[in-house]
Amino acid sequence: MKPMVLQDTPALAIDNITKEYCQWQRSGTARDIIKNLLHPEKRVVTALDHISLQVKKGEFVAYAGANGAGKSTTIKILSGILMPTEGTVSVLGLNPAKDRIKLMSHIGVLFGQRTELWWDHPVISSFQWKKEVWNIPDSVYKKNLEMVTELLDLSDILKTFTRELSLGQRMRADIAMLLLHSPELIFLDEPTLGLDVLAKQQMIRFLKKINLENKTTVVVTSHDMDDLEEMAQRIILINKGKLAFDGDFDELRNVMGGFYRIVLTTAKEETPLSIPGMRLLKTESGVHEYEFDRNVLEIHKVMGLLSEFPQILDMEIKKAPIEDVVANLYLSWREN
Length: 336
Description:
Keywords: ATP-binding, Nucleotide-binding, Transport. This protein is of the alpha/beta class. Helices cover 34% and strands 27% of the residues. The protein has eleven helices and 13 strands. The model has no long low-confidence stretch (mean pLDDT 88).
């Protein structure tokens, strides 16, 4: 389908949006049931709290946060399922709430374990149904069907009933169906959830490929930070409905300090070395893992320190795992 957004128009523009929900409070006791009938009690929950951000066309963005942070609420507002309580939203230059039908022909949305595939029909029947209902031109449908069949390895499952697919197969088929109309922007909520290592790698390679080659804008949520770092160039973190971080993964690491890991190998009988400026994390059979802050102890100083220990047989320096960085960040937010 013909792209509808100009090159200099943001794919997403969120301006000071807030989303509030009302929760009715009930205890279940007979006394409170009568009380609630006369004087209903409710609590206002702020899912999103004055968030503003932009996503450029062709970006691959990770959108993350702890459970209940507001990720799914944001995606639902951007796709027109919910309306914000305050603020404005523009998706491909359109208002999702007012122009939802027009917008849906240019975006794709996939929510975790939910599927649009017909449960008691072959996968290809769902694809053909979408072609007819969405009025996808024959040439576009044929080109995209060939692309997703090849890149997502669907040839063996196109004639298989959806109910007979494994989780990994169904996720691949869902992604394929999502792309049949050539969306300019796709929202993916936990696309690698529950997938085995091979299926996960295949999914990540495919998403990176369509982002790079087709310039498809991708916004993905996940609790697996390693997957997000592998996929996205930019990560946005929200905490309790507020924007908490927006940058790349190296910048995120620096938020908690420039922590690196170094793994030293010695003879098995060697005890862990005491190295100034380094914290021992674990040791097993002559393999010792330490952590140090590169902002405090620079790499060339590390090398100088290690040269004083002839018992070191091998060494490896690597960045701190992004899972640990984000876990520590979540913990600091919770404590504050």
